[in-house]
Amino acid sequence: MLKEKNLDFCVGSDLLFAPLAGFSDSGARRLSLKYGAGFAFTEMVSAKGLLYGNDNTGSLLYLDKEEVGKVGVQLFGREPDIFAEVVRYPCLSQFSVIDVNMGCPVPKIVKNGEGSFLMTNPNLAKDIVKSIKKSVPNKYVGVKIRLGFDKNNINASEVALACQEGGADYVTVHGRTRDMMYSGDVDINEIAKVAMAVDIPVVGNGDVIDRDSYLKMKEYGGVGYVMIGRGAIGKPYIFSEILQNHYTFDIKSVIIKHINYLNFLPERVVASNMKKQIAFYLKGVKGQKNMKEKVFATSSLEELLMVVNTLSI
Description:
By secondary structure, the protein is an alpha/beta fold. Helices cover 41% and strands 13% of the residues.
């Protein structure tokens, strides 16, 4: 008997906010959830970094009380035994969903045999999932993959099936190969092949920027769920737009709210991290170039807030 292709942890909609390095902070996640995302993920966190107590992982794992039960953690690495150990750490106890990154195309990640390099070794991918499920059998475990390492090695279905065999509860498929990075068109037909091949829920990902592209991913990709990444940066309201829910969105007040959501971080970190976020919030706004210059010229959080409050938006 086939498993029901439902994600029990994704509640309220079939939309998920993607794990985006440098962007999926607590503020962005909370805003995405407020605007209709059914679930969200942290930025990717190094399994080895957790093992060795890297100081940078603490802030990445922060959850506001509003996020508990609605946010999963994404880990990256390549050693099954390290995954098996760190998923039992107290710092991950607040996460009921563990997602393994097998799709990051960044050269330094790939060079370490992590991220999308795992697409070249389905057996290792299976062993990683199996080790996590054995270590924390009460948690949901999923993987985020690409279509393959390059155009000559399209093997998403093979990797997805291997992960399913290892015990994966779902798989997210980004419709590009590793060598495409983020350019070129997403191949929805290949995503559909994965959806047909496995018995677990499949989440479609890539270039979903509005309701039309969402409906296309659902229909032609044959997926039950859709993950939005870059399309939500600076536009958390995209979830409401897609769901056709009523919403209000004032850029200035949302930017300030986003900043306030990060009050658990040192002010210098908030100021630095928010500059790139604000650049996306201002995208398409008349006079954005001048406004961005003022934002990036600030040297403190206090100064940044002053500039934001004076912006004509």
